[in-house]
Amino acid sequence: MNSSEKKKQKEAFKAAYINKIEEVSGDCLAESSVLKQYQALAELVMDDITTQWAKSNTKYNKHQNKQVYFFSIEFLIGRLLKSYINNLGLEDIVTESLKELGLDFTAIQEQESDPGLGNGGLGRLMACYLDSSAAMDMPAHGNGIRYKYGLFEQRIINGEQVEVADNWLRNGYPFEIRKPDKAVIIKFGGTIHSEKINGNLTFVHENYEPILAVPYDIPVKGYHNETVNSLRLWSAETLEDFDLPKFNQGQFLDAVRHKSEAESISQILYPNDNGFDGKLLRLKQEYFFVCAGLKRIVRRYKQFNNNSMDGFSQKICIHINDTHPAMCGPELMRILMDEEGFGWDDAWKMTVESISFTNHTVLPEALEKWPVSMMKSLLPRIYMIIEEINQRFTQEIYAKYPHDMERNYGLSIINNDQIHMASLAIVASHSINGVAELHSKILREETFKGFYQVFPERFHSVTNGVTPRRFLMNSNPDLKDLLNESIGTQWQGNLFELKRLLNYLNDPIFSDKFNAVKLSNKIRLAEHIKKHNNLIVDPASVFDIQVKRIHAYKRQLLDALHVLYLYNQLKENPHLEIAPRTFIFAGKAAPGYYYAKQIIRLINAIAKMVNSDKTLNEKIRVVFLENFNVSLAEIIYPAANVSEQISTAGKEASGTGNMKFMMNGAITLGTMDGANIEIAEAVGPTNIVTFGLSSDEVSQYEKYGGYRSIDIYEKDPRIQQVMHQLIDGTLGFGLNFQNIYDSLLLHNDTYFVLKDFNAYVDAQNRVDQLYRNERTWTKMSMTNIAHSGMFSSDRSILDYQREIWKII
Ligand code: GPW
């Protein structure tokens, strides 16, 4: 675009924007609030997008392309305004115009609420996959729940987590379109009886409670192309706002109660990450979005296919994100048999051909098992179908292995009066995959071993990826510009092109610019820390960062104990030569997860002690940033030097934060777990710092015993000292971390924290040595970025297209 054209576009934009502000606020620009400035900009952007959206939909309907639907109970999309603007290619026009109008673009963006419709990696992965699908012109859509309250906001008060409701819809949400005309009815409870209608056995559902599911669609705009896909989120409503008969009888409260019971289904996101809590309302949520989503997909398919279901499973991929949507199997069977008139065998074939399943964890406490009694009373027809699926499946297995009762029992979907949702998902899908190579191997060899023997062809592996648009280009614009001016812009379309960076490893001018970018990102984070924690940190210090949900297996405790140990060392020897370090933590604990909350308390107590100790000469600082969410993440990753990925080997299915850090040039300090292994392979052993037990060693200890944490404790005075400090008042008057202490010694350290402690301290020393050699560190950092192409979600989506959905 030449400059006069650009000028013209800017003038047109400014005129339209000023108009919009007047329209949404009734104020002139000068009088408008930042909120109204944001709302006007959002609406203007939406005007552009909706035109393209309609075109995309028309195209899909006309050509009947194969379409993918991601069914997920979480979509952690983050703020959208900036991402829409950049994807539309309007970045310069908007940025410069707003500046010329004297407006603060950053402040305007901060008006947008960050929809917390997910807990962590699981939901964020879906958002990255939607972004990549749209960028690659692939018709893929999301289907989930429009929670009125997303994940709670975290406050740290007196060093402890306090939860505050996340009322993200407070000021309305400009990027959704409510479609009441596309609402569907979901039936809960009641009874089923069978009847012969025209000679056919028909199942009739009676006395059920009907709930209305109303869709809200959010556009998913592709990067610099014309594709706009949809994220459809369902909201629960009553059929009539008030139950009129009850209302007329004066039973006002009963009527209102029904309304609030119905709406409770989409009221709140369950705040557990990697954990199953078996609540009835959660089961309702799961069926709610599965049933609503499938009904609409079937209806649309028939509408554009001469009212026929022919070819359905060749054109529609139902991809289920972990087991929360595993009822897709029985629900699609129900629709095909009870509503579309198919017999069992045909319906089953279509179901299995359409559905594919990704597993995201091997932690036993996260595997969903619903009590038969609950399923039976809430979803009587679905339960009948699950029973029948299981009957037929176990018979097949029995015929194959007549003498192996143990196998037969282990594979049964219904066991001990519980429905094993992972088993259901495997049996009802043509494909099951893990999210990193190691994880997929553990699924085949341990978690789902029996199923792997029966269906070896169904098992696949697709390593996770993250979107470089949000996590590199938008969140690290200075790095983006530096890359563009050195290696060109091809990498923006194909992240593997970042390999060209390797040509600059020995270029001192480039290295200086590269380090300047990192420094300015660290300054930005330091400002955030100053503002929110009232603490000054040195941007020249090593920013050593662990941000993720707080969980015992992720071992924030190992990181914290190392900080405590380093503190002890510095107290003993104030002249200890180390590169100054800022240890930064952030992450939420599930409100009911006491242990995780204690970890947060511990980190904050250590921070308080360390930061107020003048004798340390500011060699170490400890920061706990409250309310980790997508927006905060976007400030954190670009500022990191060290990426802490220290889960017990074999426990973290993949991890995706590790990839976001790497893409921004942080060096991974990690165990050989999840995708860390593939990061190590990509960058080579000299560009990563690994340590600790392997997953094989962990599983040997778990199976055969042989680890006694007390033995390690007794031999290591450094460990004795930090352990005592947990309970002797060092960390503050009245502060006692007895239960963390007990978990490590009394309960034999389930996650091998003490076992890996020595190796971790050594690894931390290596990090220190490496950082003190600036040239080495810069090269390592550049090499990490250069090899991050493989961790783009564009690559993951290509893998899914080839291996799982068979699109290309
Ligand atoms: F338990 N993951 C998550 F498998 O963030 F359902 N929440 C969850 O509830 C589960 C998994 C579930 C994460 C994994 O812990 C992480 O390793 C992985 O990178 C991510 O899902 C995306 O695959």
TrEMBL record:
PROSITE patterns, sorted: PHOSPHORYLASE
Residue ranges of coiled coil: none
Keywords attached to this entry: Carbohydrate metabolism, Glycogen metabolism, Glycosyltransferase, Phosphoprotein, Pyridoxal phosphate, Transferase
Entry GO MF terms: glycogen phosphorylase activity; pyridoxal phosphate binding
Listed CDD domains: GT35_Glycogen_Phosphorylase (cd04300)
Role played: Phosphorylase is an important allosteric enzyme in carbohydrate metabolism. Enzymes from different sources differ in their regulatory mechanisms and in their natural substrates. However, all known phosphorylases share catalytic and structural properties.
NCBIfam families: P_ylase
Protein name, UniProt field: Alpha-1,4 glucan phosphorylase
Protein species of origin: Acetobacterium bakii
